Hints:
Blueprint: H1 30-42, H2 46-56, H3 62-80, H4 89-97
Helix pairs in contact: 1-2, 1-3, 2-3
Amino acid sequence: MGTRKATRPGPAPATKPVAESAVAPAAPSQRQLYEEAILAFHARDFGRAKPLFEAAAEGANREMAHSARLHARMCEHRIRSAQPEPESAEERYDFAVA
């Protein structure tokens, strides 16, 4: 019978503590920005959607960037041409008829 050599577990390898400032949250991807912008666009929150589309337009995916630029322009147009808010029942009627 052979003799077995007893092995002891060695000390655990030293680990360096990671500074919290060294671990930055990942920047949102182009797709995440675009999807969030689309949600805001459909909710008619054009002021929030426009900068998200502009950020998504800087991404690597050319088709998505093109669509984001088009949507950013639509947001700009809709922000500039905000519809008047009728104040009285008569104004609401006139607005609906027109």
